[in-house]
Write a structure and sequence with these properties.
Order of helices and strands: EHEEHEEHEEEHEEHEEEHHHEEEEEE
Number of strands: 19
Number of helices: 8
Largest sheet: 6 strands, antiparallel, barrel
Structural class: alpha+beta
Distance between the termini: 49 Å
CATH superfamily of the largest domain: Probable tRNA modification gtpase trme, domain 1
Shape: globular
CATH class of the largest domain: Alpha Beta
Mean pLDDT: 94
Number of domains: 2
Low-confidence stretches: 1-8
Radius of gyration: 21 Å
Helix content: 10-25%
Amino acid sequence: MESDAPESKDLLRSALHSKHVAAGAKMSEVAGWEMPLSYGSTLEEVRRVHGGAGVFDISHLGRIRIRGGGAVDLLQRVCTADAAHQEDDTALHTLLCNDSGGVIDDCWLVRVEGFWLLTTNACNRRKVLAHLQGHAADFDVKIDDQTERTTQVLVAGARAKDMLDAVLPEKPSALPRRAVKVGSLMIARYVAMRVGYCNQWSLEVILPNMVAAQAWRFITEKADQHAIAPAGLAARDVLRIEAGLCRYGHELNETIDPMTACLEAAVDFSHEFIGAGALRKVRDRQPSRKRIGLLLRRKAGTQAAAIPKQGSLVRAADRREIGTVTSGTFSPALKCAAAMAYVGTEAAEAGTELLVEINSESHPAKVARLPFHP
């Protein structure tokens, strides 16, 4: 069984690092990686995705390959998704939970002929790898961390599929949601999957580092009128909040269960997995709090929208403290501040009027359904 390389004090860099620097990207530390935060205006990058397309380097995400006759049995044990009945060339959203039902990570489980691929949050790669290895002793399985040997890019946007169709030999628009395709680019094998971290048409591609720069240059420069401009991880996070998707360390951690996080769709109780017993108890008694969306109205007499941050207090109309914000941003699509929070279930109904404290001032907010809609 292969093991992870020892952690370095130096920041990791993707194979596209020099491309980002040459393009003037603002680089920032993200979960041990030096990654592009933006290439200028984050809000302009978000608007570009809404109206056209953007391409993101997301190589900081973990990519762990699982092979062997015992792979299915291991994945059945650690994943909330039903890996045994997953079809080839598909991707399933799955959670890895601890014994008490808390979320270790939320991942995409990719099944292709010959192996499985688990894509993890960047901050959890080594934790997930250790978790898999810790439960692998009873199974005939090989676990291979491919993260630092591969590159992962995301293309997303309202016109993304049309722009890619115009320049690629095989049309990505033909791939349905959560479909996976394995192919070759310049003799290098790639994995393309119709998943993404925003509420737009999106395609993620994993390819070897040796061809990453050529592929990036083609899509951002050489595709002529169909070239797609790069966007940074700050824009990706705005899109993520607009889509009402969880970010580990914000909406998820090992004390939060999938039912509280409104991620029941990723849990299949038809099989036994780590934490299943605890989650059945939560399901049967109903969680005491829920993840919600919040839209903030501009306070009377103010010119700019106040942006809630992680940890901002949420109060009921009578000013009782009932929860906390987990993520917040200004949404160009919604033209207002948007946030997610955990509150008591009695306050989780869409349309409920609440207050959010920002810089010691209370700002009116309304509970909204996720994902947010303009």
